[in-house]
Write a structure and sequence with these properties.
heterodimer, A: 83 residues, five-stranded mixed sheet, 1 helix, 19% helix, 42% strand, B: 219 residues, alpha+beta, 61% helix
């Protein structure tokens, strides 16, 4: 499982990688997941529906991430713009 | 003789002093100004680098392509925006309620959709009539500003909107500032884009039919 973060002036950056089935890796991934959310990021998981359509799920807890997912994408929290 | 040479030397030194002092003062001022300019440059976060921005956008495009559907990617590549159908969010399945929120009235199953542009408001509209409902102004500012700007690359901005709409439409729509059509995007441009989208879809359909026909013919 890879954690990617969108960055201005950079595109996505790999911020963590590990196998959630390995306890040590999972611990590290959970810590990084919390850290990103504390920094004000939103997390989304790209998924594929049964019909083959690509979709996305927003996750707010590490346990919501499907175990077999390849990547979790973090991006800055939305804010209302151009008042 | 020695006195004359000494006097001449003193005069020459005096003249040189007169000439060189203003020059030395100018050099000192220029050196101070350069040092101040260097200090000011160092205080700036990071200079704008078009090459870096281009590389960032290239990476963002690859990520977008790998996440959205083939048709959506082709739409973005060809038209510069993506249409996302409303009411299909994974959270709660409350498409009808969000639809009411978007349109201001019960839609009773009438499909509605959004146009996602990079760094522009999300536009909600009714595809059946091409009626534009609202503009949703939303940003994803990264306050860590790694290169001095809080602005994501264009394709990352589109992907962030796409994921947020797909994953939790209600949260994104309620976070955004809602405005009437025309606040930031010219309604004529939206009308033109909806028309371009319709034509683009018809052409793709036609191409698909032709390819299918050729395949069947060959078989």
């Amino acid at each position: 499982m890879k954690f990617l973060r969108m960055r201005p002036g950079h595109g996505e950056q790999l911020i963590a990688e590990g196998d959630p089935e390995v306890a040590e890796d999972e611990e590290r991934l959970v810590a990084e997941f919390r850290h990103q959310l504390e920094q004000g990021m939103w997390a989304a998981v790209p998924i594929e529906s049964r019909s083959g359509r690509r979709e996305a799920e927003m996750v707010t807890d590490f346990r919501q991430i499907p175990r077999d997912t390849g990547r979790v994408i973090f991006f800055p929290r939305a804010a209302g713009g151009a008042r | 003789m020695l006195v004359a040479i000494g006097a001449t030397a003193i005069v020459i030194l005096a003249l040189l002093w007169e000439v060189s002092v203003p020059w030395l003062q100018r050099r000192a001022r220029a050196r101070r100004a350069n040092a101040q300019a260097r200090a000011a440059d160092a205080a700036l976060p990071v200079a704008y680098d078009p090459g870096r921005e281009r590389r960032a956008e290239q990476r963002a495009r690859e990520l977008l392509k790998s996440c959205v559907n083939e048709e959506e990617w082709a739409m973005y590549r060809d038209l510069g925006f993506i249409r996302v159908w409303g009411g299909q969010s994974h959270v709660g399945g409350d498409g009808v309620r969000v639809g009411s929120l978007v349109s201001g009235r019960a839609l009773d199953g009438v499909p509605y959709a959004y146009l996602i542009y990079p760094h522009k408001p999300i536009v909600a509209y009714l595809p059946q009539t091409s009626r534009v409902l609202n503009e949703y102004c939303v940003e994803f500012p990264d306050e860590t500003r790694p290169y001095g700007s809080a602005r994501l690359p264009d394709s990352d901005d589109v992907l962030a909107k796409w994921m947020a709409l797909k994953g939790d439409e209600r949260r994104l729509i309620t976070t955004a500032n809602m405005h009437l059509p025309g606040r930031q995007i010219d309604p004529r441009q939206i009308a033109r884009d909806i028309w371009r989208l319709g034509r683009w879809e018809r052409e793709r359909l036609e191409e698909g039919r032709r390819a299918h026909g050729a395949g069947s013919g060959a078989a």
